[in-house]
Amino acid sequence: MTAPHRALRRRKPSVAAGWRDRGLARAGTLLPGLLPSLLLASCAVGPDFTAPASPAVDGYTREQRVAATESAPVAGGNAQGFASGADISGYWWTLFRSKQLSAFVEEAVRNHPDVQAAQLALLNARETALAQQGSLFPQVTANGSAEREQASTTQQGDWPGQTSNYALYGASVSVSYTLDVWGGTRRQVESLQAQADYQAFKLEATYLALTANVITAAITDASLRDQITATEEIIKAESDQLVRIQRQFDVGANSKSDVLSQEATLAQAKATLAPLQKQLAQERNQLMAYLGRLPSQDRGEHVRLADLRLPGRLPVSLPSTLVRQRPDIRQAEATLHQATATVGVGIANLLPQLTLSGSYGASGPERLFSPTTIVWSAASSVSQKIFDGGTLYHTKEADVATFEQDLALYKSTVVTAFQNVADSLRAIQYDAATLKAQAASEKATADSLAMAIEQFKIGAVPYVTVTNAQQSYLNARVSRIKAQATRFTDTAALFQALGGGWWNRTDETPDARPRANPGYFAGLDKKNQEAMR
Q1: C-alpha to C-alpha distance for 284 and 275, rounded to whole angstroms
Q2: Are 297 and 38 in contact, with CB atoms under 8 Å apart?
Q3: What's the CA gap between 373 and 363, in Å, rounded?
Q4: Rounded Cα–Cα distance for residues 16 and 397 (Å)
Q5: Range with top average pLDDT, 84-98, 129-143, 341-355
Q6: What is the 3-state secondary structure (H, E, C) of 104-118?
Q7: What pLDDT digit, counting tens, does each position of 221-235 carry?
Q8: Where are the alpha helices (DSSP H) in 272-326?
């Protein structure tokens, strides 16, 4: 924990009292003598934010290095190795070598409302921060007036009365400037800038979640299609087998029980088809939603598992860099930064507030620069809360509690992030072994089914042996397809857990950039806008 963070802990009052009471001591004893210098070089009370340090660990698992995976003799079954410290591509989904998959991701990012909402939320936060920055400058107001009046001498007793018309003009410029002696306004700006940082990383988190969801949905869609194809092939084979068994029964070569057994096996296979079709239909609807389409706008494009390529070399970020790459950790850090700045605002509110004001005017625009006709004023004021029932003090204490809460939540986010990476690494390892075993199981059950059919033909085994072998083969084939798809989704999950490489691409659109200021201070405002990006 960094020094500013330690200073915020109530459990260490000897340290915390330093910054909590620093401003109050100045107000009581130092203000008269130090006011001129404070006006020239004011400070910002409260703790300065420092990002928490990365966890002091060397890896994500108990082993220093994660071993390469096993391979299987099927598509997507190649071995995968891990490159510790390698950078992550901003377009990591292209490693699957599927044009259709990349097209899905591009369409989702372009069309999904959540991405546009995140862009506009970032714009809102940046504009709000820029608006607060205006409080650091003097507020200048120009006033002008024109009045036409008519006067009559009858009001003075003259008769007959005479009337006269005349015009009254006024012009003035007033200036008001609240001195940010204690840095309260600057802390407010800092807090809003931290909120803008939060929204920037929320945009990255939205982008990352959407791309990962699109890829997972497309792979699941491909897996379900292969499962349906496999099931339909099994149903056709078992239907043909039922025809043969029925013919053999008709000529007295088989018993009725053999026919009934085959009918039951065929019915069981057909019963597995409808749930797969239902799951595929719902998965398509989900994929369309990710793409920003309505379900009725499904044009049927899909990815095939056989067309995907499994990356053989997977980058794994160093643990020391993960906290800078995960958008959710950066969001938690921005929230912590905002809470730190808010503590400074609460302390500044406890201290005297100084304001300078002045005006310069004349009875007409043409007289503004005439020394004999101008009217001017200058004033200064100091205000200090004497009694407020403890409102400001307890507000500041609540801000301190919020900081401590956000610090705990930040630590929780870091722990979850490291768990995500470790889970993904383990999944890639063990699911590779699972695919190898499922591929072997599929081959073994296919051989067993072929043998059972041949043995049944010569009367060596009862037909129930054939039906059991058929069911085993169907289950093994579907399980292999699921395991095959899981290896692709595991790879996508690892890239997501490592942050998705957002630092290697630009996700912000013009919708997230502050609007140009057409006013007199457009140049200054432009510099502020650049600093917000």
Answers
A1: 14
A2: no
A3: 7
A4: 12
A5: 84-98
A6: HHHHHHHHCHHHHHH
A7: 999 999 999 999 889
A8: 273-290, 319-325
Among candidates 164, 165, 171, 183, which has minimal Cα distance to 146? 171
Residue with tokens 């699972």: 434
Q: In the block, which residue shows the tokens 């200058």?
A: 378
Question: Cα torsion for 29, 32, 34, 38, to the nearest 10°?
Answer: 110
SS3 59: coil
Q: Are 45 and 24 in contact (CB under 8 A)?
A: no
Question: Burial level of 438, CB count in 10 A (0-12/13-18/19+)?
Answer: buried
Quick check: 350 pLDDT over 80? yes
Rounded CA-CA distance 132/125 in Å is 11
Q: Is the peptide bond before 160 cis (omega within 30 degrees of 0)?
A: yes
Backbone torsion region of residue 371, taken as left when φ is above 0, otherwise alpha when ψ lies between -120 and 50, otherwise beta: alpha
What is the average per-residue pLDDT within 394-421? 96
Give one DSSP letter per residue of 215-267, joined into a string.
HHHHHHHHHHHHHHHHHHHHHHHHHHHHHHHHHHHHTTSS-HHHHHHHHHHHH
Give the span between the Cα atoms of 134 and 188, in whole angstroms.
11
Q: For residue 379, give the 3-state DSSP assignment.
A: strand
- In the chain, the domains with their CATH numbers are 3-23+42-532 (1.20.1600.10)
For the whole model, what pTM was predicted? 0.83
User: What secondary structure letter does DSSP report for 312?
Assistant: S
Query: Distance between CA atoms of 375 and 359, rounded to whole angstroms?
Result: 8
In angstroms, the CA 449 to CA 439 distance is 15
Question: 386-406, pLDDT tens digit by residue?
Answer: 888 899 999 999 999 999 999
263-277, 424-438, 508-522: which range is least confident on average? 508-522
Residue 516 phi, psi (nearest 5): -70, 140
- The tokens for 259 are 């026919």
- Residue 297 has, within 13 A of its CA and on its CB side, a CA count of 9
Give me Rg for the CA atoms of the chain.
37
Alpha-carbon separation of residue 328 from 87, 150, 419 (angstroms): 19, 71, 14
489 close to 220: Cβ distance less than 8 angstroms: yes
The rounded distance, in Å, linking the Cα atoms of 283 and 300 is: 12
Phi then psi for 337, rounded to 5 degrees? -60, -45
Please state, in angstroms and rounded to a whole number, the distance separating the CA atoms of residues 205 and 197. Answer: 12
**pLDDT single digits (tens) 329-342:** 999 999 999 999 99
- Host H or E run for residue 171: strand 163-179
The alpha carbon of residue 41 and the mean position of all alpha carbons in its chain are separated, in whole angstroms, by: 39
